[in-house]
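Weekly sync, protein design subgroup
Attendees: M.S., D.O., the rotation student, P.L. (late)

Item 1: inverse folding check
M.S. brought a backbone from last month's batch and wanted to see whether the design step gives back something sensible before we order anything. D.O. pointed out we never logged the input encoding, so this time it goes straight into the notes. Structure tokens as presented (208 positions):
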């Protein structure tokens, strides 16, 4: 076989393989695109899990049991309350602060009142500051674990049982903390927020 004929055969094989190669590349790009979409949907829950495990961003922890030791050192926990857009509640802490020993279990209350004429369900987000305390602030029971519903004009006391993990005194970034602020923000559950907005906009039969 001449050199020219061999070159022609190689070119022919290369062109013949090109559609197959292009198809492989197309499949790969499609798989990559689907993977990126999947990751975008998973990003929020994965980030939430990361925060809960590490305390990143001041995210508190959830504990199944209380510590087996209580230190003599005391710490002050202050309480903060906020309302998100569209949440027609009055929401505030019953007590502004509590002083407790590290490792001691404490009970605090928040108070919520529905100021609207519609039934409202809310969910509370939470964090503590300074952020370094997040992985040591443990909740045993909390109203924030579930959605909360209030009928029109109804009022409710919302308890939170918590403790500060004694291991905090061994953390160089957190061992000098003397005060912690626990903050909650209530947001309306989407479906009920939409109902409340529709009710507000719909005129009554008497035109009011």
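Designed sequence read out in the meeting:
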């Amino acid at each position: 076989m001449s050199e020219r004929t061999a070159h022609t055969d190689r070119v022919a094989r290369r062109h013949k393989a090109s559609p197959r190669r292009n198809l492989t590349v197309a499949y790969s790009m499609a798989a990559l695109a689907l993977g990126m979409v999947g990751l975008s949907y998973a990003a929020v829950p994965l980030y939430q899990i990361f925060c809960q495990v590490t305390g990143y961003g001041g995210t508190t922890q959830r504990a199944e049991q209380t510590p087996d030791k209580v230190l003599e050192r005391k710490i002050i926990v202050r309480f903060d309350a906020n309302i998100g857009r569209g949440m027609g509640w009055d929401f505030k802490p019953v007590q502004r602060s509590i002083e407790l020993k590290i490792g001691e279990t404490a009970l605090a209350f928040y108070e919520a009142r529905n100021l609207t004429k519609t039934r409202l369900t809310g969910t509370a987000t939470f964090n503590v500051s300074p952020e370094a305390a997040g992985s040591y602030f443990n909740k045993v029971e909390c109203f924030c674990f579930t959605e909360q519903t209030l009928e029109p004009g109804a009022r409710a006391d919302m308890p939170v049982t918590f403790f500060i993990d004694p291991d905090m005194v061994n953390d160089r970034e957190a061992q000098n903390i003397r005060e912690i602020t626990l903050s909650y923000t209530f947001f309306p559950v989407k479906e009920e927020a939409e109902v409340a907005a529709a009710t507000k906009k719909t005129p009554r039969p008497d035109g009011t």
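Discussion: The chain is about 30% helix and 35% strand. The chain has two domains: 1-54, 61-196.
Action: P.L. to compare against the previous round before Friday.
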